[in-house]
Amino acid sequence: MPPLNYKEIKPDGFLSHFVQCFWYYDTSETPVHHTILPDGYFDLIAEFENGVLTTVKRTGVWTVPIDIEIPAHTTFFGIRFKLLAAEYLFQNTLQSILDTTEPLPFPFWNMNVYKHHEFEKFVSATTAHLNHSVKHLNAIDSRKLKLFDGIYHQQIKTVSGLSSHVFWSSRQMNRYFNTQFGFPLKTFLKIVRCQSAYKAISNGSLGPQADYFDQAHFIKEVKKYTGATPKELHKNKNGRFLQLSGLAYK
Q1: Each residue of 106-163: pLDDT tens digit?
Q2: Would you give the distance in Å from CA 41 to the centre of its chain?
Q3: How many CA atoms lie within 13 A of 79 on its CB side?
Q4: DSSP state, residue 79
């Protein structure tokens, strides 16, 4: 596996409804090939090459595996967002950038003021900015808070169960997902279920996880969203799958 340096800092308090984590990654002296797996989040990313800021971008939600090539001496600062952040922190939709990215101006959220070695400073300042933004939001739809909390914590795993839990019709929830994110709620549930299996797969558990009918169903669903079988994911040749490296999603 090529050398890598990856770390996460998780938020606390009310901000955790919107942010999964702040993350840092650098390639040191070795270029790498990675495959990004669907995980049910989207990211804001600042990319530095040889210490110089070259890119600020936002991703959509990945519903298919994406292959990327990263040059040597590249550093990333990232924020992994839960889907609720699109509407309330960015105040727009992700539908138009499904499975792709959009460039943002370098001064977006002051991304251009940080040096490539100032990750902790970036996290501290951005956390303060986001906490301030959250405090000044207009009323947040309580149904959406309950909806995403139930999904991300794997408490409720069906559309009908979520409908009963949040008192929101299945038709209305699907309209919201298709308009806001570009795919139906059922697809999101499958992606989150698949993502929840990554840690077990990385640890060598290749049998069907909870909520899969049998081994065949498990393999079919994992391959649909990752492009690989559980066995291939576990082998993770050359560190191809960062999310299965044992460093991410602890």
Answers
A1: 999 999 999 999 999 999 999 999 999 998 888 899 999 999 999 999 888 899 999 9
A2: 3
A3: 27
A4: E
3-state SS, residue 117: coil
Question: Coil, strand, or helix at residue 213?
Answer: coil
43 and 59 in contact (C-beta within 8 Å)? yes
Gyration radius (Cα) of the chain, Å = 18
**Spatial distance between the Cα atoms of 103 and 187, rounded to a whole number of angstroms:** 26
Residue 186 token pair? 């059922």
Tokens in use for 171? Answer: 């038709």
Confidence band, pLDDT 50/70/90 cuts, at residue 168: very high
Other CB atoms closer than 10 Å to residue 190's CB: what's the count? 20
What domains can be seen in the chain, in order of their start residue? Answer: 5-135 (2.60.120), 142-244 (1.10.10.60)
Structure tokens that stand for 80 in this block = 């992994």
pLDDT digits (tens, 9 = 90+) for 20-35: 999 999 988 888 889 9
Beta bridge partners of 66: 36
Q: Spell out a b/e string for 73-107, using b for 16 or more CB atoms within 10 Å of the CB, else e.
A: bbbbbbbbbbbbbbbbbeeeebbebbeeeeebeee
Contact criterion met (CB below 8 Å) for 132 and 83: no
